[in-house]
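A favour, since you know our structure tokens better than I do. Could you add the entry underneath, on a fresh line?
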Amino acid sequence: MIDNQSDPIVTAAEKLETALAADVPGHEQEWTVRLHGALLALENALRGHKTAAEGQNGMFASLNELAPETLPTLDRQLQKLCEDHNDFLRLVAGLRDEAQNALRAFQPRLDKPGASAPHFTPQPANTGVPDFGAIRQQGSQFLETLRKHRENENKLLMETATTDVGVGD
């Protein structure tokens, strides 16, 4: 069983959940910076988990040692979990980009009339007012999907452990 206290994904997901739940009005920039940091931490945790799970000696490697009659079903489940890992990395990167775009809304505009300083590099134009509600909703949906994935992953690992030792024969 996974120790949730030391699991980097659980820790990062809790950090993201806390960031998403924080009040936004009057604290938009602070909220966005905190959110961006939480997303970056979760992205790093997901990358580490993907490597640990799918690597040559990863936790999914034990599936190769199971009896051939159990492999088709477990292989399909394993493929889905691996696809999820890739999808999660894309989703968290997309959310991180949303947070980065929201941060740009708080950057001073350098193209103001009369503000010419040769050492300033033009930044992308502000993208308008960020939709914090949509970002919060996407983040919450992502966390729920991640929770379900973790349950499925744990279930698969438990199934392979009981199949491997012959429990229930």
User: Anything to note?
Assistant: The radius of gyration is 21 Å. The chain has four helices and no strands. Confidence is low (pLDDT under 50) at residues 117-125, 164-169. Residues 71-104 form the longest helix (34 residues).
